[in-house]
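Milestone M4 deliverable, item 7.
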Amino acid sequence: MISQSFIDGMVRRGELLNSYYQWRNEPTDLRELIGKKADSGKLEWHLLPWRECEEVVRVLMKGKEKYGENNWRIVDDMISRYWDAAMRHMTAYRKGEIKDPEFGTPHLAHAMCCLLFMMWKDNESGSIN
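Output delivered:
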């Protein structure tokens, strides 16, 4: 918890800064002294739940060991097969099985990988076919 003496000290420092900048004929609104960054409208990566993203990466690494790096990109009938795989993982999760028994990683992370693969395919081809 922040003590009242700390707050009082910060207020005094702010008053001193205001006096100093008034004396120098510079902006007195302390908000004008804060650095600016033109990032409105840009992706806000901090919104992602990183621990869960790490689980997705673990699934990708296990897949790399089993199938080869980026093998998922050349799977025939990709959309249908990854849709089915995502549904199998989500169904297992809904039945109470949190982790995939083969990989030991969360079923939902496997489903996320499947959905990402499908999204990649859509972006590459412009359609789901």
